[in-house]
Amino acid sequence: MSISPAPELNATLAPEPLSPSSIASTALATHPIDILRFNTCGSVDDGKSTLIGRLLYDSKSLMEDQIEALERSADITGGGQINLANLTDGLRAEREQGITIDVAYRYFATPRRKFIIADTPGHVQYTRNMVTGASTANLSIVLVDARTGVIEQSRRHSCLASLLRIPHLVVAVNKMDLVGWSEERFREIRDDFEKFLPRLDIKDVKFIPISALNGDNVVSPSPHTPWHVGPPLLGHLETVHIASDWNLSGFRFPVQWVNRPHSPSNPRLHDFRGLSGQIAGGVVRRGQKVLVLPAGITTSIKQIWTYDGPVDEAFCPQSVTLVLEHDLDVSRGNMIVGLDDFMPGAGSNLHAKICWMHPRPLQRGKKYLLKHTTNTVQAVVSEIENRIDITTLEPRSAPAELALNDIGEIRLRTAKPLFYDGYATNRLTGSFILIEQGTNATVAAGMLLPPKQVVRADEIDFVI
């Protein structure tokens, strides 16, 4: 992101600070059409791919050539009905077996919101794919077959959504047409699911009866469910409140690169030096005091540049270029934080939950590359503490290794200290991946546990 500052580079007084709630309101007012990222999950053959196809088809988000390709497909049913699952199940093996294997992403928009959909597989064999697709989601749709009700996979994927700190959950009770649109059956499934909810740390849960194949309660309300109070699925997706999902307390800015335009046609840019990256948490304002890590030097924000020009303040997850008041030695991998009541954790001994994604098991003592925000460091697995039973979120006894699709708690030792937050506090500064040296294969996705001690800025003694 190369940002060319305007000729006037004079700093002005910082505006009055805004509260996190007012920042969220400002975000909605400035960007009335925001982006909702969601994933679908559930057991095999619960209708995840069909639901996404129905959303795209009924919301008129498909191109004519896509519809023509579906009509020409050999997978048209005997009654001449288009197989909407083929919009996301693109692999030949997926179409042959009628299951989802890989993660498929689709994009569509309505006048009220833009959407990024991740169609994730339901089989336990592809847990790593589900974790990958859900890692950036604001909302998760768990499909439940009305005939079979809540089964182990339903609980498993709900636990994964809770583990990944997805703030919104929709339980879509699918294939209601096959149980005669029974309100009693819907309530039975809802009551069964609600018994399981206390184990999950998800505050916003909605239940919607649908038929993905026929389109009932997907885009338009169904005449078959007069007993259901609330909007259809798309109506809920358009209106669910996500502006406050981002962490707006505790400014975090991992530096991605140093921006030096040096434009020959504009001599004013010869001395410009900005720090570009994505705000990973909190709010930054012009004139605000900040701390540069790991140097531990305090400075202030002179200017904030965006693609559209200079602004007085910016907030997570905007991408910006910051100009500091002092010319400091700052480079990629450093982090700029606000002088708030709490600081990020700092250390080289990390405690984390991981999902293992490689056929070769994770073994104690093996070295990997750990990528955290814009930092990549060498790390060694010092201890495997336990394997987590994903259907209950309870830890089991310490295993000798973690196999493919296992989720467990480990301890890591890094070659240099990292600055981080617990994943429950900040999904951006609390997540990481492990990379196998030599092959560069991503072998694990990790969620950092909170640091043992949260301290103020003036209490930290940094070691460079």
TrEMBL record:
Gene3D superfamilies: P-loop containing nucleotide triphosphate hydrolases (3.40.50.300), Translation factors (2.40.30.10)
Protein's UniProt name: sulfate adenylyltransferase
GO biological process terms, semicolon-separated: sulfur compound metabolic process
Leading EC class: transferase
Naturally occurring in which organism (per UniProt): Horticoccus luteus
Gene Ontology molecular-function annotations: ATP binding; GTP binding; GTPase activity; sulfate adenylyltransferase (ATP) activity
Annotated ranges, domain Tr-type G: 33-245
InterPro entries listed in its UniProt record: CysN_GTP-bd (IPR041757), CysN_II (IPR044138), CysN_NoDQ_III (IPR044139), G_TR_CS (IPR031157), GTP-eEF1A_C (IPR054696), P-loop_NTPase (IPR027417), SO4_adenylTrfase_lsu (IPR011779), T_Tr_GTP-bd_dom (IPR000795)
UniProtKB keywords: ATP-binding, GTP-binding, Nucleotide-binding, Nucleotidyltransferase, Transferase
EC number(s) on file: 2.7.7.4
Pfam family, one: GTP_EFTU
Positions of transmembrane segments: none
